[in-house]
Amino acid sequence: MDDDRLENGRGDQAEFLDRVSMRTPSGEDVSTTVVLVVEKLTGTPMEDLPLLERNINIDALNELFEPPTGEGSESAAGTLQFEYADCTITVDSEGKVVAHRQTQGGPDAPRQEGETREM
Question: What gap in Å lies between CA 116 and CA 107, rounded to an integer?
Answer without folding.
Answer: 10
